[in-house]
What we know:
By secondary structure, this protein is of the alpha/beta class. It has six helices and seven strands, in the order ββαβββαββαααα.
Amino acid sequence: MSATDPGVAAAAGAVASARQGGVTGGADASRTGRTEIRIAGTGGQGLILAATMLADALASDGRRVAQSQTYEPTSRGGFCNSDLVASDGEVDYPLATALDHLVLLDRQAVVPSWPLLKPGALVIADTRLCPELPEGDCRAVHLPLTRTAIELGSERVANIVALGALVALSGLCDRDAMEGAVRSETPRAFLDLNMDALAAGERLARQATA
């Protein structure tokens, strides 16, 4: 949760930003150390903010990260996703083409995201807003992300609950790095709520694997 909703443009589009290093041309899916992540749902769910927090955590762990996002022109309700490409070296192609990790906070995000999954990819889906998934070669985990956020006091922190679950299930980055990134991006008024949401997501992940 932040003081304002994530940025929404007047028309659908995508932007890419790189952290810790440049981006060069060419998309070679065989390169080592490349990890692709998508956080997807609908506008107003804080997806871009969540991806920015995760990108900061990955960068603090020493990885190079490119972030891009796609969104429809409506501020709330339209399809939205934010993608990260993380690499141990330079990110030579900044857009996601084969997802290793997918977080789904709404059923609208399934159709545009499902064809991009790598075999064996981790998929975390919200039980309430994305109750059904297609068949596929993936590790699918349904978690009550939005319900947990509501129980914490605000559905708007479902994005942070999702981050906690994703990091716990994937080991993408150090837990302390993720906490530090959330703290740095959160206004003081919402800090306790976001920390509670992050911890709640971690608990959901532990329960799912117990």
